[in-house]
Amino acid sequence: MTGYNVNRAPLLPQYAPPSPPPCRPTITYKDTDFVADLPGLTYTPNFKHYSGYLKASPGNNLHYWLVESQSTPSSDPLILWLNGGPGCSSLGGFMTEHGPFRPNPDGTTLFENVYSWNKKANVLYLEGPRNVGFSYQDRSINNDTVYNDDRTAWDNFLALKDFFANYPEYSTRDFYVTGESYGGVYVPTLTRVLIQQIQANNLTANLVGMVVGNGELSELQQINSAVDYLYFHGMEGKNEWDELKACCDSSTTLAYCDFTKWIHLDSAGNANPIDNSTCARKVAQLGFLRVWTTLNDVYNIYQDCYQQTAASVKSIRKLRSWLSADPKIRAAPPGFIDQGSLMNWASTDAFGAFPCYMDSATENYLNLPEVRAALHIPTQVPHWTDCNDDMNANYLQQHNDTTSVFDDMIASGYKLRMLIYNGDVDTACNFLGDEWFVEALKTKYGMAVTTARHPWFFQEDAKYILQLAGYRKSFSYKNITIDLVTVKGAGHFVPTDRPGPALQMLTNFINNAANYTTMTGYSAASAPLLPKYLPPSTSPVCPSPAPTTPAPPAPTTTATVTPTSATSAPAKPDAAASFVPFVGTMIIAYLLTFALSFF
């Protein structure tokens, strides 16, 4: 062998071939749905959020908005939130109940909700069924016109399956299905499907619990309990109450009478008399119509909006379409108002009239072109509304009582924790009806009462005294545990009416705490406003400085001058005159400090 090296010398740079382009990073589903800049947000959030679409049945595209946890997003649980209706958007719950952002009256800016549920968890808001909110249906693929509970549950399941495929980091997290109002049907029916699919190895998810707030778990129990609730809250008279005694079996007390034998529930959930008898007409009137046709706020009997006008009220829907959609809308005043600074978190007032303007401001904000673009909403998607009235009118309600759904979950053997909570001043889905539903399950299965009914308390901070927040009772049976909780003074929308107690309740449920009185530990301090949203600065008026030029000499005079005693002290400044500016300055400084504490 020659022993020569046959390797070629390197080429000169000008003759070297071009370097291959660097590998482009893969653009993920999550990357495209990232919300980089939300218009009108008055502060800088400390979490990421995403908005886009999840695939359900072919042609059905369900809009979602995911907000990461403000605590430890990489390990905190995942919560799915579903509003009810049927046909109402979960963005209503996002913007007016427990989402991190709330609208100002101008309908163009957002302030911080310091009691947002994403302080505890990553929260996924899903708009369903199709054609609700920003969700839409591609009729070139699917021209289906049928809406019912089973199809809603299946589409929600498919959307979740798509979510876990594109956000695989959540597939092993503790996962909770939550909702309110007609969510009392949505949540159990979806949870049943999830259990079935997990057990069939068709879904990887760590489902550990479900939460229903002021839910329509049983339309039958709601009608039975409404008669009692209205009477004991002064909305029915004694004569009307006494007339119902004739409609009860002699062996049954009036408080536990089954009035539903006198009415028929149609597919829209309306209660109709079975005949023209007095009992049938009375039960339909007092157990149903009295709830939905009174001028009293059906969602909170103590909530009043004194500046309501006929033009500002949502179009009247058919009865029962009002569930989970507050019918009051106000015309929002023009101009930015920092609503966050007006919220009185220290008392039970109406939060600066937020419940009276929140719906109109939300609708205005979500339909701003720049907001729709930031949330990645296609231009062909119609105007966002809180509830789809047309869909509601055509929705087939298959479960006027969800006992059979709970039966299936219990029979599955799947380990599941449940929280059933109610604001106690709601007539749409009153607390008695849900309590009787759970107590009926207890009787049916012989459930153990693991915690007797007792009060629980809210405490913002250890320096404040405890405040009664409601009552709790707990049950267990084999694989199932149920916490039955009331929230004092809250209506249908508990996180709106009692935001602090609502967050504490959720936190303790997720933590599986023995006592719901345990404080959350989260700060309720607001993030600082961005500079352009700060109010004009105000400075105290300072007294002008004394002149530095010497005073002119006294004129010469021949007048007799009275001599001053050699022992006289020099003239002192007026003490009161110098004390007043000092006190005034201190008061102004104190007021400024107090005002700035709200930002």
Automatic annotation (TrEMBL):
Enzyme class at the top of the EC tree: hydrolase
Domain of life the protein comes from: Eukaryota
Keyword Membrane appears in the UniProt entry: yes
Biased composition (Low complexity): 556-572
Transmembrane segments: 579-598
Pfam families associated with the record: Peptidase_S10
GO molecular function annotations of the record: serine-type carboxypeptidase activity
Entry keywords, A to Z: Carboxypeptidase, Hydrolase, Membrane, Protease, Transmembrane, Transmembrane helix
Keyword tRNA processing among UniProt keywords: no
UniProt biased composition (Pro residues): 541-555
Enzyme Commission number(s): 3.4.16.-
Stretch list, region Disordered: 1-23, 541-572
Entry's Gene Ontology BP terms: proteolysis
UniProt cross-references to PANTHER family, sorted A to Z: CARBOXYPEPTIDASE, SERINE PROTEASE FAMILY S10 SERINE CARBOXYPEPTIDASE
Similarity annotation: Belongs to the peptidase S10 family.
Protein name as it appears in the record: Carboxypeptidase
